[in-house]
Design goal:
Number of domains: 2
Order of helices and strands: HHHEEHEEEHEEEHHEEEEEEEHHHE
Largest sheet: 6 strands, mixed
CATH superfamily of the largest domain: PPM-type phosphatase domain
Helix content: 40-55%
Radius of gyration: 38 Å
Distance between the termini: 120 Å
CATH architecture of the largest domain: 4-Layer Sandwich
CATH class of the largest domain: Alpha Beta
CATH topology of the largest domain: Phosphatase 2c, domain 1
Number of strands: 16
Strand content: 15-25%
Length: 456
C-alpha cells in the first residue's frame, strides 16, 4: 500500500462516523500503525543524525585548532547520546610510551566532578581498538578489580583511529535521566569518532608543525642575539695581534669568549664552556657573560672575581649546570697576564724562545662547589710569543672511527702556522679539526682566542 493511501486509510479509521457508532479499527491495522510509527521514528532519528553529522563535519572541517575541534566534537556527542559528560583523550603514538596521555579535552552538562579516562580502560582500548559499552562498569567482568568513581553509572567508549592506529579515545559518561546507553548510542558515537579522528589528527599535526616553525624562528633569533653578545671585533693593542672566534655545533652554542676593556692599559680575556647544548646552554652562557662583566668592574683580584662568579652561578642554577672558564687580566704596559683557570682546557703559551707553557693554576669548574677558594698566577708574554686559548671542542673532536683530534695534533697545527696572523691561525686550527673529523658531525662548539705579540 502506498504511504499516502495508508495514512488516509488510518485517518478515516480514527474519524468516527457518529458519536453513537464509533468505528472499531481491526487489530491488523493497529499493528500497521505501530510499525509505521516506529519506522517514522527511525527515519526521523536517521535524519537528525545525518543533519548532526553534516553540521559537525562543516564545523570541524573549517578549523585547524585542535582544541576547538575537540570541544565541538565533545559538545555534539553530549547532545547526540544524551550523556552527562564527554571526554576526548589523545594518546602518545610513539611506541615507548603508548599509554601516555598527551591531550585531554572535556565538557560536562552536569555538576559531577570531571572524570578522567581510567588507565585500565585506556589499556583495554589499546588492545581491542573497538567500541565499549557498559551500563554497570562496577560489576562488568571485563574490569574486575578496577575501582570506579561512585557517580559513574554507565560508560560508552569508542576509539579514534587513523590508518588502523589508535590516536585517542572518545568517552561518554552517564546517560541522562538514569537511563542506559543503547546500541544505537554506541553506533552513533562510533560514527562521530570515525568522522572526527582524521580531522583531529590533522589539526594536531598542523599545530605541531606551527610550533616547530615558531621554535625554529626563536632559535634563529637566539643565534643572532648570541652572536651579538660576542665581540664584534678584536681589540686593537699596539704591538699585539688579537683575535677570537666561536663556531657553534648547533644554531646556538654554549661556548663563550670575550674581551672586556678595563682602562687604556688593560683588558680581561675570557673563554668559557657551559654544560649542555642548544638553547639551555646559550642561556647559561649569557648568564655567565653578564656575571663576568659585572665582576670585572670590581676592584678585586682575579681569583676573587672568579670566586664570586662561581658563587653567583652556584646559587642561580640547577646542580647539574656548570661551566669551565679561563679568565685573565692582561696589562699592556707590563705585558703580564694574571689568570685563573676554572677547570678549563689549559691554554698554550708558545714561546719564541723556550718550551711551551701551560696555564693551569685556578680551581674547579664554576657552579659546582659554593665558595671554592680559587688561585691565580701570572705569566709575561714576551716578544714573538703566541697564546692560544681553546675549548674542548677542538681537542675532543672525533673522526668517523672515533679517534680524537687531541693536543698533539693541535700543537702541530700551531707550530706549522705560527707565522700566520692571529685570525689566520684560528682559521687554520678550525680547518684542521674539520678535515680530521671528515664526515663525522661536529659534536661540540669550536672556540679559540689567540694573542700574538710582535717579535720586534
Amino acid at each position: 500500500m502506498a504511504r499516502g493511501k495508508f495514512l488516509n486509510h488510518l485517518s478515516q479509521a480514527f474519524s468516527p462516523k457518529s458519536a453513537d457508532h464509533p468505528r472499531v479499527v481491526p487489530l491488523g491495522e493497529v499493528g500497521g500503525l505501530e510499525a509505521l510509527r516506529r519506522e517514522n521514528a527511525r527515519l526521523t532519528r536517521a535524519l537528525e543524525e545525518l543533519s548532526m553529522l553534516n553540521e559537525l563535519a562543516r564545523e570541524i572541517g573549517a578549523s585547524r585548532n585542535a582544541e576547538a575541534i575537540m570541544d565541538r566534537i565533545i559538545r555534539r556527542s553530549l547532545r547526540s547520546v544524551l550523556a552527562e559528560q564527554a571526554v576526548i583523550t589523545l594518546v602518545n603514538r610513539q611506541a615507548r610510551e603508548p599509554m601516555k596521555t598527551l591531550v585531554r579535552a572535556m565538557a560536562t552538562s552536569s555538576e559531577h566532578e570531571q572524570f578522567h579516562l581510567n588507565q585500565n580502560l585506556l589499556g583495554w582500548m589499546h588492545l581491542n581498538k573497538k567500541p565499549l559499552l557498559s551500563n554497570s562498569p562496577r560489576t562488568d567482568e571485563r574490569f574486575r578489580g578496577i575501582t570506579w568513581d561512585a557517580s559513574i553509572s554507565s560508560i560508552l567508549c569508542v576509539p579514534l583511529m587513523v590508518k588502523s592506529e589508535l590516536i585517542g579515545v572518545l568517552t561518554a559518561y552517564n546517560r541522562k535521566g538514569g537511563e542506559e546507553f543503547s546500541e544505537e548510542d554506541q553506533r552513533l558515537l562510533a560514527i562521530i569518532a570515525m568522522q572526527s579522528a582524521q580531522v583531529i589528527d590533522n589539526a594536531r599535526l598542523y599545530e605541531e608543525e606551527q610550533a616547530y616553525l615558531r621554535m625554529q624562528e626563536e632559535v634563529r633569533l637566539a643565534a643572532v642575539i648570541q652572536q651579538d653578545l660576542l665581540p664584534q671585533e678584536a681589540p686593537r693593542v699596539f704591538g699585539y695581534d688579537i683575535a677570537g672566534k666561536s663556531v657553534a655545533a648547533q644554531q646556538v652554542g654554549g661556548d663563550y669568549f670575550d674581551f672586556i676593556p678595563l682602562d687604556d692599559m688593560g683588558m680581561a680575556i675570557c673563554l668559557g664552556d657551559v654544560s649542555g647544548k642548544g638553547l639551555p646552554a646559550s642561556l647559561l652562557m649569557a648568564n655567565l657573560q653578564a656575571t663576568l662583566r659585572g665582576q670585572t668592574l670590581m676592584d678585586v683580584s682575579v681569583s676573587d672575581r672568579i670566586r664570586r662568579a662561581n658563587q653567583l652561578l652556584f646559587r642561580s642554577t640547577d646542580p647539574e649546570k656548570f661551566a669551565t672558564l679561563f679568565y685573565g687580566v692582561f696589562d699592556y704596559k707590563t705585558h703580564q697576564l694574571c689568570f685563573s683557570n676554572a677547570g678549563h682546557e689549559n691554554p698554550i703559551l708558545i714561546r719564541a724562545q723556550g718550551a711551551p707553557v701551560r696555564l693551569i693554576t685556578g680551581g674547579t669548574v664554576l657552579g659546582v662547589i659554593d665558595n671554592f677558594p680559587f688561585e691565580e698566577d701570572h705569566v709575561v708574554i714576551d716578544k714573538g710569543d703566541t697564546l692560544v686559548i681553546f675549548s674542548d671542542g677542538i681537542t675532543e673532536a672525533f673522526d668517523a672511527d672515533e679517534n680524537q683530534f687531541g693536543e698533539d695534533r693541535l700543537m702541530a697545527v700551531i707550530d706549522e702556522n705560527r707565522d700566520q696572523t692571529a685570525l689566520e691561525l684560528i682559521e687554520s686550527i678550525i680547518a684542521a679539526v674539520r678535515e680530521f673529523a671528515g664526515t663525522a658531525p661536529q659534536a661540540d662548539d669550536l672556540t679559540l682566542v689567540v694573542v700574538k705579540r710582535d717579535a720586534s
